[in-house]
Design goal:
Growth Hormone, Chain: A, 18 helices, about 75% helix, about 500 residues, mainly alpha, 3 domains
Length: about 500
């Protein structure tokens, strides 16, 4: 055998080296992560834009499909799904490769977008085809948000993490403002086109398959059965507030009782009984349940006021309301710096007070012009933009660090389920004019109905402040150091 042949044989028989994963190298991992994060962020923005757009026009959609009394379900059901999948995707990221997870998400988002448009534009629009499409879209787009946070947390160096977490917060608030604007514009043409906005994200799939890490996690199995029980229990509870059918409430209660028995017996439930035995956590989570209860309601109420009292089109209303979301985006982006200066407790009180003043001002100014109502909306959404950071820090400060993942998941559930029930109630009252008899604000007729609905929001924000002052000593007991550390870290990040 010749020397050349021997060399060739040696090369052919040598074991092939496995390709090096760029995410294993700290230098290349940052570059790869950034390449993945940008399309993930755009996908999340477009999905959120669609969600906020439907939040504005769901009353119009409900009327067009012949179900005005159940219109709130168009917002309520996707919100429930959003809360549940936020938790599920966070858990799935521990044992399913991000490539598989994102593929599922983008395909689901695309199917929901196309189905929603085709089924409701080329065929007779139907309440349940709208809801199914919105549920599919919500379940799909949230994958991008969860994957974004996972990639940024695991693969970015600290200085880049600060930048991309800030971009994530700002993008969410900005997408809400664009969504309101887009909904207003498209409502005068055909609201069905809203479905198509996130469909373009399917083009990002080849890029993400090349840039996302290929590793599969090895975490514990997700408690799918627990999620199913809890999800159906919550869904029937929301349906009850829309249809007021007592059998739905009975089913919901039965499922919640079954869920309680299940988590006491299951080996690895997604939420343990210890959560519900932690009285500090229970008090803290009440803040989210109360403060977020009517968070979805202001935009549709103002849209109804604008169209029915001031003779405005939804497009004109959106051009006003969009400024409130811009304010929320600015305040939300600066919230880290603000909380760093004034502290978590003061930040929470300030946010709750702004929300209360926004609701109250709008309630007393229904007949004072839409510009005044817009200013009140700006005050309210400034409070919303400021609320997230201190209330989440407060809740997470009541649990152990090794439970923080589940704690974040429960926060997401509460932040989406509570306003889902709230919008179901407010939406029903909005459509029925049940509160139009009169108001302490002096408004009469239809204006009284809107004024009283706004007062409900005002009372809810006030109740949140009362709950905070009643529980604050118990919530923060032994956590002064945590509060100071959180404020210091937030201030440093803002710098």
């Amino acid at each position: 055998m010749s020397t050349s042949n021997a060399a060739a044989t040696a090369v052919n028989t040598a074991p092939s080296q496995a390709p090096v994963d760029p995410f294993d190298d700290p230098v290349t991992s940052n570059k790869m992560a950034v390449r993945a994060l940008i399309p993930l962020l755009i996908t999340f923005v477009l999905g959120t834009l669609c969600l906020q757009g439907f939040n504005l026009v769901f009353q119009q959609v409900g009327a067009d499909v012949g179900a005005p009394a159940q219109a709130s379900l168009i917002t309520a059901f996707p919100s429930i799904v959003l809360g549940i999948v936020c938790f599920i995707y966070g858990s799935l990221g521990d044992f399913v490769s991000l490539k598989k997870l994102v593929t599922f998400g983008l395909v689901t988002l695309f199917i929901g977008s196309i189905f929603g448009f085709v089924a409701n534009y080329f065929f007779a629009a139907n309440l349940w085809t709208v809801i199914i499409a919105r549920v599919l879209q919500t379940a799909g787009e949230q994958v991008a948000g969860s994957a974004f946070l996972v990639v940024a947390t695991k693969y970015l160096r600290n200085d880049l993490k600060v930048i991309f977490f800030g971009l994530f917060t700002a993008a969410y608030q900005l997408s809400a403002s664009i969504g309101v604007f887009a909904a207003g514009m498209l409502s005068s043409i055909a609201w069905q086109f809203l479905f198509l906005i996130p469909s373009v994200t399917i083009l990002f799939l080849p890029i993400l398959l090349k840039t996302l890490p290929s590793k599969s996690g090895n975490g514990q199995k997700v408690d799918a059965f627990g999620f199913v029980i809890f999800g159906f229990a919550t869904a029937f509870l929301t349906l009850f507030f829309s249809y007021m059918s007592w059998w739905m409430l009975a089913v919901s209660v039965a499922l919640f009782v079954a869920f309680g028995f299940y988590i006491n017996k299951a080996s690895n439930p997604f939420i343990t009984p210890a959560f519900f035995k932690n009285t500090r956590w229970l008090r803290a989570i009440c803040l989210i349940l109360v403060f977020y209860f009517v968070n979805y309601a202001l935009s549709p109420i103002l849209n109804a006021i604008g169209t029915n009292i001031y003779g405005m089109t939804t497009t004109q209303v959106s051009l006003h309301i969009v400024w409130a979301f811009v304010v929320a985006a600015v305040v939300g982006t600066c919230s880290g710096m603000i909380i760093g200066k004034i502290g978590i407790k003061a930040g929470l009180v300030t946010a709750g007070t702004l929300m209360f003043l926004g609701w109250t001002g709008a309630a007393f100014c229904v007949n004072s012009g839409f510009v005044v109502l817009t200013l009140c909306a700006c005050v309210f959404y400034a409070g919303c933009g400021l609320m997230y950071s201190p209330v989440v820090s407060t809740v997470l400060g009541t649990i152990e660090k090794d439970e923080s993942g589940r704690g974040v998941g429960m926060n997401d559930l509460a932040m989406n389920v509570s306003p889902s029930i709230g919008i179901a109630i407010i939406g029903s009252l909005l459509g029925s004019n049940a509160l139009s008899g009169g108001s302490i604000t002096g408004a009469t007729g239809a204006a009284a109905n809107y004024s009283n609905l706004l007062l409900i929001g005002s009372v809810t924000a006030l109740l949140g402040l009362i709950v905070f002052f009643c529980f604050r000593k118990k919530i923060y007991k032994g956590n002064n150091a945590l509060e100071n550390d959180e404020a210091a870290e937030t201030a440093e990040a803002a710098k």
